[in-house]
Structure of Delta(3)-Delta(2)-enoyl-CoA isomerase:
Amino acid sequence: MCTLQKRGNIFILTLAGDDQHRLNPTLISTLRSHLSQAKAQSTRGSALLTLAQGKFFSNGFDLDWAEKTAGPSGSARDKLLEMVELFRPVVADLMDLPMPTVAAVTGHAAAAGMVLALSHDHVLMRRDRGIMYMSEVDIGLTLPDYFSTFFRAKVASPAARRNVLLNGMKVKAEDAVAMGLIDSAHDDGEKTVEAAMQLAEKLGKRKWDGVVYSEIRKSLYPELCGLVGLDGTGTTTSRL
């Protein structure tokens, strides 16, 4: 499950309940509902902060759900592909959100959970515990098309992409900073959330036009936007 609260102009999206916050259809639907609510209520000065309770930020797709719901005539792989397609618009929702977004990664972020974290504009991580990890090469799964494009768009260094995607590197916070995956590392979970909130508030105080902000964001990642179902950028009237 997850919740959405508003503190001043900051929307706080919290992954709660299940300690691993695995992405199944129910959680994905709730995430989309909360992001839609934040979008509808956004104003100049809004920002989104996403955080998670417990040991994990998110441990990726819910493979247990896939196995349990496959049924005698289906397969767990088909259910996994279903989740892959359901998650695609979550990336689109974050790309299209008319406000700055910040993720406070206070636990493990694996596979689709890592993609969820890096879908935010800014990512902060605790250094004392937790890793980022793309497990696909280790468990024998290929990457969805939009995952591959996502990492080409979001991670500038070919060496970093190789280490994460081909070597299955379990990346701690300090290394994630050095590899350009995240913005900063902090001593513990509390300080990570505190710094993330401060950043969200700082960004909100700029009071940028949300439509302009989201269009500029989308213009940075045109190939990714196409794969997640976002059309080309729009235009707005300049104040100059």
